[in-house]
Amino acid sequence: MKKQVVYQYDRITCRRKVVDKSKKMLRVRSKKLIFVAFLLASAIGIYVGQINGAEVKAASYTVHEGDTLWSISTQFVDKNADIRKFYYQIMEDNDIDRDAVIQPGQQLIIHF
């Protein structure tokens, strides 16, 4: 196979140097791949940022006589969501132990 030769002029000294065309094509292809990878990473970053930036609503709830965490959870949970996860999220957000008893007048922060 015949080697193709391309002359490239050095901008500073105006000397001519021989550049192998296959190496030059490899450099161009590498630059294109890096550019495509950068665009892909940017698109993924924007998409993930939009998902994580979803609006989170919070409410303050005052516990009444006879309330349980389960009954409070049923009032705020989305009908398509798992109530058990919501229940445990309320416990975690308010630092409530598994064996703790909530008291009337206690303020709970509820994220939904």
UniProtKB/TrEMBL annotation:
Coiled coil residues, start to end: none
One Pfam family per UniProt: LysM
Domain of life: Bacteria
Residue ranges constituting the LysM domain according to the UniProt record: 59-110
SUPFAM superfamilies hit by this protein: LysM domain
Signal peptide positions on this chain: none
InterPro entries: LysM, LysM_dom_sf
Protein name from the UniProt record: LysM domain-containing protein
Originating organism: Megasphaera cerevisiae DSM 20462
